[in-house]
Write a structure and sequence with these properties.
By secondary structure, the chain is an alpha+beta fold. The chain is about 20% helix and about 25% strand. It is built from 14 helices and 26 strands. Strands 1, 2, 3, 6, 7, 8, 9, 12 and 13 form a nine-stranded antiparallel β-sheet that branches. The protein has an eight-stranded antiparallel beta barrel with strand order 14-15-20-21-23-24-25-26. A hairpin with a 3-residue loop joins β23 and β24. The N terminus is likely disordered.
Amino acid sequence: MGFFSRKSSDFPTDNAILPSRSPISSMTDSEGPPPIAQIFKLPPEILQQILSYLDVQHLVSLFRVCRDLKIHAEEDRLWIDLLKPHIPHYDFHNSPHPAPSFCNLYLTHHPYWFLPRHKIWFSDDAYNGKLILIKFDAQKGSIEGYQLTAERPRAHAEAWSYKPSVIIHHINPRVYASTEDPVLSLPYSTKPHHRGTSAWIRSNGGSSEGQFGAWSLSNEPHMLVGRANQKINASLLLSRNLPLPTSNALSVSVWPPRTIPDMPRVRSSNSSSDKFASRGHRPNTLEEISQTTFRLRTWSHFMQGMAALGVRIGEEVSTWSTLSEDLYKPTKEKPYQGIFVGDYASHGCEFLLVLQTEQAPDRRARTVPNQDQEDTERDRPSNYIRAVLAALRDELVSEDELEEMADQGHMTVDVKGAVHVQAPRVEPNVSDGNGDYVVHKGAIEAIKLTGDVNVPRGEHTFIADDIGPAGTIRIAHERPFRGARVVRSRGHVAARGFRNDEFVPSQLFLVSPDLLAQYWLPFGHISFYKRIDIDELLQAATNNRSACE
């Protein structure tokens, strides 16, 4: 997968930072005149072209060979090419300010450039989680992460003309990155964040081990985050990916959750008894550094001198993961996938990852074992069936509405209580409004990136098992859904603390690739989900910072 591949310019290809013998310096051992002098007979442009094929490790090793090669290896053009993959064009300036050179700027934040490169990160904080955008701040030369916030104005409600007993909740949330109180902040410093990195530019050699050992990669860069009066301290922990057999074991708590496919995983924050203080959770070499996850340790100091005494109030560790762009960038074949913001009533707005997959997960499959369910429940009716019957029993839906579900192909219940699933109706594909026809096939899964005390982050919030003809109910003709494809879906609900979770019958309105609506049948209301543009939000954050400064 292209998301996991790395160019040689991103990271070293072996473990040693300072090889005991440089590839160039070793050439001087052969008989005859030193060939190093012959290199400088090449035109400077040719020499620069040769050096452009070296990775960061070997560029730095040239610093030790001789003064002239050091000058060539520090050439800005080389380091600009190394920086550009990590910084969007709207954040890349022609000046390395506040650093004296692009080489110095790169080495200051190495090996943390993967943070702004992947832009979006979400955490495993209990129930709610957090979603942040990480960017390079060219004004300060720092790497900063801002929490994504959705402010919900007063919702406008109206009765649904198709069924007046159902209420439609219209919202248009204001989504922005909170630049005033960063969640993560790696400031520019003349000293690199890791002690081991400073060894790269020493003229007399590197560390005692001659490599980026655990003693340097276990270092946690300290930062002050949040507003100035909050006195929140944080440190950043590098992580390493779990082997596939371990990450696939359901007994192991991992992050990102297994609901999100094709991502490397690490242990989640609740799986460490010592809050990841041991070296076993840390990378020992550059190659072991996870490029898709990291951890944050946060705590508070309320009194002067507490830091010197090592007293930390409310220390917590959160684990963060990014998302592959392949999962949220829409394509012609998968126009609905992306990151959306939706309305969850009293819980406020929450962020979702909408996936288009070949097949939806099994109705009984669980990504995390539920301790409240006994093994004997495997032989009982599925959660989906029991949810409908419970809804009827509790009068959350009327008998007429249950009849309507049956007409739409959900199910029939005979006099003996036996459940029979009806054959669904088949509808044709519909136009996208531009004269082209969108081929609808596969499933849609909506996974919470931020959650609430009922259905937490990392869990499905709704699933449409088939958006093709087999799962289509109708094409809507009423306002505000005129032209929308309506497909069968199931919504995820639970009691507080994610207890007794069930999937209840619902309908998903595919209004447009940028706008979805979910009809929660048992509760008689429809809520909207709107796509957000990550690059647009990052540019807005850049403009906001520039205006403030």
